[in-house]
Design a protein that fits this description.
Blueprint (H helix, E strand, L loop, with lengths): L1 E5 L2 E5 L7 H8 L18 E4 L2 E4 L12 E3 L7 H12 L9 H14 L5 H8 L9 H16 L1
Parallel strand pairs: 1-5
Antiparallel strand pairs: 1-2, 3-4, 3-5
Helix pairs in contact: 2-3, 2-5, 3-4
Length: 152
């Protein structure tokens, strides 16, 4: 039995400890906001927070979660996440939207750690978060806007 906190609530799961967290979230717990993209941690669509750190859930094993705190897009509500979500809407960032939960999770982790990021900070934090619609310029602009919202 593996016990961890998921979106603020204790979870006890009896699954193969080598199961990727992504599979547990989507297939077992029916939390489908975290998307499957590539399965090899290259696209960022499956990004969640584990103990506050942006992590690719396709490569995080359930057996390593004992005692950890996992937050998914369904429950993210930090001040940084709220600012990111407001900026995303204001600047109409998404096109198809498939990658956006991973983008938001990575961006909110960045703003929590670095409230006034430079373009270089943003590029480093968002590296590996792929967007097939190529909204990268809007994403960067929205992260800067979210930083402004947080300062207000």
């Amino acid at each position: 039995m593996i016990e961890f906190t998921l979106n603020g609530k204790t979870q006890r799961v009896d699954v193969d400890p080598d199961m990727p967290l992504l599979w547990l979230l989507r297939d077992e717990l029916k939390l489908t906001g975290t998307k499957f993209g590539c399965g090899v941690a290259s696209c960022g669509a499956c990004t969640v927070h584990i103990d506050g750190e942006a992590t690719r859930s396709c490569q995080a094993l359930v057996g390593d979660l004992d005692g950890a705190a996992v937050t998914t897009i369904e429950a993210i509500d930090s001040p940084a996440a709220q600012a990111i979500q407001a900026a995303w809407v204001e600047l109409q960032v998404p096109q198809c939207g498939y990658c956006q939960s991973g983008q938001i999770m990575s961006a909110s982790a960045l703003l929590t750690e670095t409230p006034r990021p430079t373009d270089d900070d943003i590029d480093a934090a968002m590296e590996g978060n792929l967007c097939r619609c190529a909204t990268y310029a809007r994403i960067r602009k929205a992260i800067h806007r979210a930083a402004e919202i947080m300062e207000a």
